[in-house]
Design goal:
alpha+beta; Tetrahydropterin Synthase, Chain A; five-stranded mixed sheet; three-stranded antiparallel sheet; 9 helices; 10 strands
């Protein structure tokens, strides 16, 4: 619209100059009529362009006529409106508010504002430093009521105070080490529920709460590290004991097998078998290349003399 107004001003100046130059040759009435036509066309174009409003993707337009906020909203694209209407463009895309000391990028690079990490107390009186990101967006249909009751600075008036209050109010219900480890998800869920209640009816929709980091006091961190190390050592000892137990069971099974084998052998060897084996050994000695051999008497209850060299083959 500003460009059109500038164009009209320039056109009027040019026509005025032309009028001065043509006074000597043209009648003043014709020049005046020409200026009226140009001015009329300029006014018509100005009104036309003032009546067309373009709303970008992820935005809605809230109409305000002399301080009276209209209930109807303008959607993305070109919209025809009252030229006297003031249109406030509202971003309804996902936004993020991050409280962190780290200079990293937010997940998915959503539109984000930042502040320092929030300090809070746990139920056991320990001071925690939390890095938190909250994803939220504005409801398109509730945008007029949001502008009417809160204004465009809704983040500083509603979002940030609600986030800080929820984080601190819920933290006092948890032990510090639980927020740090085992009940982290429970803490995040409770914070989300409280924020949903705070945003309800205000045109603000909570999407997700991200607990990015929990910083405990140094002594508590050292105690937790020592506890984790002790648990790991205990698990290692359990593994070693289990391995030794399995090895002992294996040896017991092996010994049982050997004893059973010996029992079977002892039960199957008879005196007749031993005598037969003795005679067979004598035959081998007779047929051997040795020039001489000695036959010694033996107790028949004992194992006979065997040719161990042959058995070894």
């Amino acid at each position: 619209m500003t460009g059109i107004i500038i164009f009209l001003i320039i056109a009027i100046i040019v026509l005025t100059v032309v009028k001065g130059q043509l006074k000597a040759n043209l009648q003043l009435e014709k020049v005046t009529d020409m200026l009226r036509v140009v001015a009329g066309v300029g006014i018509l174009l100005t009104v036309l362009f003032a009546s067309i409003v373009q709303i970008g993707p992820g935005e809605v337009g809230v109409q305000n006529l002399f301080g009276n906020v209209q209930e109807s909203i303008l959607r993305s694209g070109l919209n025809l409106v009252n030229p006297l209407m003031e249109v406030q463009k509202i971003d309804i895309k996902t936004q993020a508010y991050t409280m962190s000391g780290a200079n990293d990028q937010d997940v998915n690079d959503v539109k984000s504002n930042r502040s320092d990490p929030i300090q809070t107390l746990s139920s056991d009186g320990l001071t925690l430093l939390l890095d938190v990101t909250v994803w939220y967006r504005l409801s398109a249909d509730d945008a007029p009521n949001l502008i009417r009751t809160i204004g465009v600075d809704y983040e500083s008036k509603i979002v940030l105070p609600a986030i800080r209050t929820a984080i601190r109010d819920i933290a006092v219900n948890f032990v510090a080490t639980d927020i740090y480890s085992s009940k982290r998800d429970d803490y995040v869920n409770d914070v989300a529920k409280k924020l949903e209640n705070s945003f309800e009816g205000r045109g603000i929709i909570l999407e997700k709460v991200l607990l990015r980091n929990v910083e405990l006091p140094q002594k508590v961190r050292e105690a937790i590290d020592e506890k984790i190390a002790a648990e790991q050592r205990a698990q290692q000892m359990v593994y070693v004991l289990q391995k030794e137990r399995q090895e002992a069971e294996r040896k017991q099974v092996e010994a049982t097998g050997v004893a059973e084998a010996q029992r079977i052998i002892n039960s199957t060897i008879s005196n007749s078998y031993l005598q037969w084996k003795y005679i067979e050994t004598l035959k081998e000695l007779v047929n051997s290349p040795n020039n001489s051999f000695v036959i010694a008497p033996y107790d028949q209850k004992l194992v006979p003399m065997l040719n161990f060299n042959q058995l070894a083959k």
